Amino acid sequence: SSVQVSVLGLGAMGSALAGALVKAGYATTCWNRSPGKADGLVAQGAKAADTAGDAVRASRLVIACLLDHASVHEVLDPLSDELAGRTLVNVTTTSPAQSRELADWAAQAGVAYLDGGIMAVPHMIGQPGASILYSGSADVFHQYRPLLDLWGTSTYFGEDAGLASLYDLALLAGMYVMFAGFMHGAAMVAPAGVTAGEFAAEATPWLTAMTGAFQGFAAVIDGGDYTVEGQQSLQFSSLSDLLAASSDQGISTEVVTMVQRLIQRQIDAGHGEEGFARIIESIKQPG
Ligand code: NDP
User: Fold this and answer.
1) How many angstroms separate the alpha carbon of residue 48 from the centre of ligand 1?
2) What single-letter DSSP state applies at residue 94?
3) Is residue 189 in a domain?
4) What's the domain count of the chain?
5) Residues in a beta bridge with 27
6) What are the tens digits of pLDDT across the range 2-34?
7) Domain end position, chosen among 137, 159, 181
8) What would the pLDDT profile of 222-277 be if each residue is shown by its tens digit?
């Protein structure tokens, strides 16, 4: 490819991203704060830059994969003049507010900005299953789409630079609560002599199948009517049997109690006959 690209930050993730670019034939210049990390990439055909400034000057497209928001500013603030007129794709993990702040900073400096949230671990980069979420400049996303697609499935959410990060964190929220649910189930059966591995063998297909319910819930939520026929009611979902069985096993009930409280607030407000999806109202309006 004739596209020249520079990668700032050769940690575990930056190295994986740069490696995919080199492999695909992009003229890739790499920089890392501590020396030595570019050696493997140079052996594959990348160029190493001695300074971040040299790396920025080498390419119209600059990828930043540093530790955090502060490190992006530390590296790029002194280089705003060099970056002017270039494109910055920042895949460093930042909060939505930090991503918006960086987009404003870039706009001030005359830099086209695209923010990315990586939903993968380094060894997944360039493999099926890797997903990267983007928001910010649509022009940048579309212009460099072939390059971005080398890393994984690229999804663009819009001009608000904070939106990719918000999606990233929202997806992680879902993941952590699901993981806690798995742990709760494994803890429940453990006193009965069931190993976590035996439980996982049942939980994997079960929870995978249950993800099929998301779009049904979403249709009810987006439709704004929780009384639609065919839903499991809040009344029916009281979870008291589940809590009693957990207590009988001598384990913590915290994980399930959290869900039960969300249900109960809607029942208390008189919505017990309505669908389970209504617990989102308990979350949207903290009690
Ligand atoms: P590493 O800890 O492996 O690498 C961190 C990188 O940031 C190194 O290149 C380090 O340089 C550099 N760095 C840190 N502070 C500074 C600074 N003040 N100035 C200049 N460079 C600095 O992290 P990863 O590569 O794993 O992660 C990079 C980003 O990717 C993070 O934002 C992370 O959240 C995100 N990410 C990582 C995932 C993963 O599984 N690893 C998954 C999804 C996102 P030095 O070598 O000199 O220390």
Assistant:
1) 18
2) -
3) no
4) 2
5) 4
6) 789 999 999 999 999 999 999 999 999 999 999
7) 159
8) 999 999 988 899 988 879 999 999 999 999 999 999 999 999 999 999 999 999 99
